[in-house]
Amino acid sequence: QSRLVESGGGTVQPGGSLRLSCAASGFTLDSYAIGWFRQAPGKEREGVSCISSTDGSTYYADSVKGRFTISRDNAKSTVYLQMNSLKPEDTAVYYCAAALLPVCQRVVSAGEVLGYLYDYWGQGTQVTVSS
Question: Are 20 and 92 in contact (CB under 8 A)?
Fold first, then answer.
């Protein structure tokens, strides 16, 4: 069965770091743009970052620019999200999603997340930033 599996979430203090992983099982990520999203309690899901399948271009929401870094290792069919200088407002469940369509600009733009654009979604991993 083809699926995405996130890992690496946890609880850290403000200013700390975490690295999330998004691994593909049953398929390879080479042809997919990969987006990271998050959803905090009582809030809408929002796009955080994205990496394209074509040239590896990276995209970030304004709220995480300069703090988060997305990367991909196609040989391992894994995408990473390095999160530094974490803030309490980064607390959320983080999801990755894979799309054959060129979705990256849409991922990091404001507005509703259109789930139907993505071929696969992970189950989510909790990130809590608290002192």
Answer: no
Query: What is the Cα–Cα distance from 59 to 46, expressed in whole angstroms?
Result: 14
Helices and strands (DSSP H and E) totals, the chain:
1, 11
Both tokens assigned to 55? 């040239």
Token pair of 8 as six digits = 């690496």
Residue % of the chain over a pLDDT of 70: 100
Question: Looking at residue 66, what is its pLDDT?
Answer: 97
The C-alpha atoms of residue 42 and residue 80 are separated, in whole angstroms, by 26
Mark the ranges of the chain whose per-residue pLDDT is less than 70. none
Run of H or E residues at 106:
helix 104-107
Strands of the sheet containing 18-25, edge to edge, are 3-7, 18-25, 78-83, 68-73
* pLDDT given at position 85: 98
Identify the bridge partners of residue 38 per DSSP, sorted by sequence position. 46, 94
